[in-house]
Design a protein that fits this description.
There is one protein chain. The protein has about 190 residues and is α/β, with parallel strands linked by helices. The chain has seven helices and six strands. The chain has a domain at about 85-155: Winged helix-like DNA-binding domain superfamily/Winged helix DNA-binding domain (Arc Repressor Mutant, subunit A, Orthogonal Bundle). It has helices at about 35-45, 55-65, 85-95, 105-115, 120-130, 160-165, 180-185; strands at about 5-10, 15-20, 25-30, 50, 105, 140. The strands form two sheets. The chain has a four-stranded mixed sheet with strand order 3-2-1-4, with helices on both faces. It has a two-stranded parallel ribbon with strand order 5-6. The protein is globular and about 45 Å long.
């Protein structure tokens, strides 16, 4: 089979998925236009050629499509190619895959579960290197990266907040609401 990729339709636009003989190597959620989605996927996986997906890839596509329609999905049977992923990042991804749909964890909670309380920067780096978007649901991790309203790496134009809302989650913030944050620099009426 070799290294391949395919594009597929979802409720939020055209996604891409790449794979090797060992399993999925990456998922790309929709960019503003399909050509941009393809470019981003090709930049990450230049050796991949467009081809018909095998059953493992079809299983992932069905799951991603269902998840982006707001359905509950179990990706535990989907095989990932972790060959280029460091052992630490694999541990982070395993913990993240265990976060239930509709729930979130803070980076501190991940660090505690991994027994590495001072590794927040390493956890943040693992999240930004996650090419397995949705299958390794990094959108369920709060307090790391760009915030909930900005896209995650490989999330195209879809924000973490949007992904969480599809799951029925209520994203947490770090101490106060986003509304409160907007009021911080506002002059008060006298």
């Amino acid at each position: 089979m070799g290294r391949g990729y395919t594009m597929f339709d979802t409720a939020l636009g055209r996604c891409g998925i790449a794979w090797s003989d060992a399993g999925i190597t990456g998922v790309q959620l929709p960019e503003a236009r399909e050509i941009e989605t393809r470019r981003r996927l090709f930049r990450q996986f230049p050796e991949a050629r467009e081809q018909r997906p095998c059953s493992n890839i079809e299983l992932a596509i069905e799951g991603i499509t269902a998840m982006l329609r707001g359905q509950d999905v179990d990706f535990s049977d989907v095989v990932l190619d972790l060959g280029g992923v460091t052992p630490f990042n694999q541990r982070v991804y395993d913990v993240i895959r265990g976060i239930p749909r509709g729930e979130t964890r803070s980076a501190d909670e991940l660090a505690e579960e991994l027994h590495v309380p001072k590794a927040l920067n390493s956890i943040a780096q693992a999240l930004t290197r996650n090419t397995f978007v949705l299958i390794v649901p990094c959108h369920r991790v709060r307090d790391v990266g760009n915030g909930l309203d900005k896209p995650s790496p490989n999330s195209g134009t879809i924000s973490k907040r949007r992904l969480l809302s599809l799951e029925g989650a209520r994203p947490h913030t770090t101490g106060f609401t986003l509304f409160d944050a907007l009021l911080v620099d506002r002059p008060r009426a006298s």
